[in-house]
Amino acid sequence: MRKLIFLFMIVCSIQLQAQTIGKWMGLPPVPVEMPAFGNMKNVEGKTFTSAQLLTSSVFNIENFNPKVDTRELQFHSLTWQKATVSDGIVTTDHAGNTPAIVISAVYAANPQWMSGKLEFNFYGDAEVYVDGEKKITYTGHNGAEAVKRDCPLEWVPGKHVIIVKSLANGDNNKLFSASYTANADFTEAPVTFTLSPERGKNILDVLNGKRVERIQISPSGKYLLMAEAEIIKGKSSRMTNVYRLADKEIVYTFYGNDASNLTWIPGQDKLSFLLKEGNGNSLYTYDIENQKQERLFKADQNISSYSWSPDRTYLVYYKTENYSDKDWELRKLDGIEDRQAYYRNRYFLCKYDLATGIHTRMTWGNLTTSMMDISHNGDYILVSTGKPDYNEYPYRKQSVYLLNARTLEVDTLWENRLQGIQCSFSPDDSKLLISGSADAFGKTGINIAKGQIVNGYDTQLFIYDLKTKEVTPITRDFNPNVTNYVWHKDGNIYIVAEDTDYVHLFRYGQDGKITRINCPGDLVQRLSLAQNGNTGMYTASDASYPTRVYTLDLTDLKAQEWANPQGEQYQNIVFGQVKDWDYVYKKGTTIDGRYYLPADFDPNKKYPMIVYYYGGTSPVERTFGGRWPFNLYAANGYVVYVMQPSGSTGFGQEFSARHQNNWCKTTADEIIACTKAFLKAHPFVDPKRVGCMGASYGGFTTMYLQTRTDIFACAISHAGISSISSYWGEGYWGYSYSTNASGHSFPWNRKDIYVDQSPLFNADKVNTPILLLHGTADVNVPTGESIQFYTALKLLGKDAELVLIKNADHAVVDYNQRIIWGNTIMAYFAKYLKGEPAWWENMYKDKNL
């Protein structure tokens, strides 16, 4: 008797776990016909059967976008409607003897990783697709009784689309029924079936979709050259379109990468480009207005890329000379940089005269010569050379020259400069617009506190008069960090600059004042101005929206959206709010911050939180996607708090100079204080479920924080630095980066920095579970930085995990690795911040080695 009761309880438990999927949507039936000669035997002696209509009638199901009362984008005339469901069975009103394909769809939403199965009862032939992947093919149905088929599932958190393709033959209006049963460990994990396509952002949204790679407006401002890419499952296709700005009509298209170096010819609405022909490259031009194409030279073996002279009389290109030893057993390094694969390459300038067809070598020597700009009359070229000098801080010297393009005579503007600069000509060629560090011209551009050292990554602008040699700093009192600039023909300088965690547009007017251009976009990415017109184009994204393209009127500075390339992709994706939250850490120091909320945020609930920072010398901008997509983390049910500690650019020279000789000593205090204050001010965050993460210098910050505090429930460090001294000596750019992180300080004279502030030497203080991620081919921060910290933590009996990414450099770029890497981060946080270890344990099963 007890056994019978026990069995009855088990059966009831299983029945309770089964969740009937009671609502579906569908497309109208699509009649299909038997093929011609279907009754003829093929080479295998088989005739075509009606069951084969199911598998031979193919739809592009993986690209379906089911939504009730909405036309399926793959078709012109089919609209999704609510399906008829009776007692859990999906039925069709298709009648008659002609077979038809019926497509049915539903969405499943699960907030945590889970496993289970879909159970189908088919009343006819059918296929089942989950997230575009075929899971079941059932054919050969005979009779009216239902046939059961199961579909095992392992679902990452998010929303999943289930599509059933049924073959209706008119004899029976029943198609199928379906239910979901969770595996034993996930009976409490909620799964909701819905007809709504609305969802949060997922990792595939980050990696796939359309991208604007380049914009260039024509000299008159009438046309736009826009390079566009579309990524589908990691495969990228490219085309470059020429649009007429006024009506957005495409007037010319280049497909793929066959045409290279596409650019507008100076002063003309004509394009030029290279095509591979024979053993070289041919240069073509295309006149947009007259629709005329012309070849300027054929199969040239010297030119693989080029720049036009503004007067259109010659091209400048580079000649490469490689002095590397291809096969070597032992090799003596000729300097610190000689470990770098490209260090022994040298690049020199050459000229191709369009009138005579002659190639001329313009520069020679043992140092690479780089072209900065060409004067508007074509007479002069600004060139520079650089070389290491280990005897004087910051260990590299630059020389800048004025090269006469006609005679090849050289005037030296600066020789053996200690601070590198970039120069371009003013519209009348009488001045130079120069970008560089605040100390590029001594103290004239410096605006820092006493005792501070300039942060060389905080870029400033100067105007240099070629006649008087007078230098005017124009951004000394301008806090944003300059990233791009154009001195336009209208006399104004247009500036793109990091402005706290935004990137904004500014204009330096002829009155000597810099004003912000109030135009849409949190993060301006690309800027192009018409050479001879008053129109500009720029691209920008927001914290919760991908890149859009805008026009900018240079007269009234009004901007207007011109294109929304990813609008279709994001029409059903919802985002939570992004809110600013700044914290006054102490007098004179406000730590800028923002936080992301889940789309279904409820202030009465308690949420886990992820704290993100860099801690290095760049702000964590309001990037929409990228490697650290904050709105993806919010879509997984986390509050995400992002802050900008001291040392970052975009907040003024004094703030960025705090990065020097600090190595997180101040930064860590700020992060800890800000996190505590945020938790106190926001009761919807559970203080016991707060994690943190960062990468590169931010990975170092993560490691170092765990030696200073126990407020975090877990931590993730990607490509982090554990020993400042080993990074300083081993990383490709370790010692050169340190000129801006530890100026004039070395392992032998600042043990307090290189040892005392290195996480490795404080590993015994770590009590927080930590995940270390690192690429095995990282030349920036060598993989050993994570390995040695992992070794120390393991020997100390700490909770530490190390996941290596095969052949990845400093960033993970491979499509499939990006998915696994991103899921690893989410699975680790789910384990420690949500108490849901299943995802992590499924990805990284214990080997019991």
Quick rundown:
By secondary structure, the chain is mainly beta.
Annotation keywords:
nine-stranded mixed beta sheet, 849 residues, mainly beta, Jelly Rolls, single chain, globular, 51 strands, 5 domains, Methanol Dehydrogenase, Chain A
Describe the structure.
- The chain is mostly beta strands.
- The chain folds into five domains: 196 residues, Jelly Rolls (Sandwich), CATH 2.60.120; 160 residues, Methanol Dehydrogenase, Chain A, CATH 2.140.10; 55 residues, no CATH class; 91 residues; 266 residues, Rossmann fold, CATH 3.40.50.
- Helices cover 14% and strands 38% of the residues.
- It is built from 13 helices and 51 strands.
- The strands form ten sheets. Strands 43, 44, 45, 46, 47, 48, 49, 50 and 51 form a nine-stranded mixed beta sheet that branches. Strands 2, 3, 4, 7, 9, 10, 12 and 14 form an eight-stranded antiparallel beta sheet that branches. Strands 1, 5, 6, 8, 11 and 13 form a six-stranded antiparallel beta sheet that branches.
- β46, α4 and β47 form a beta-alpha-beta unit.
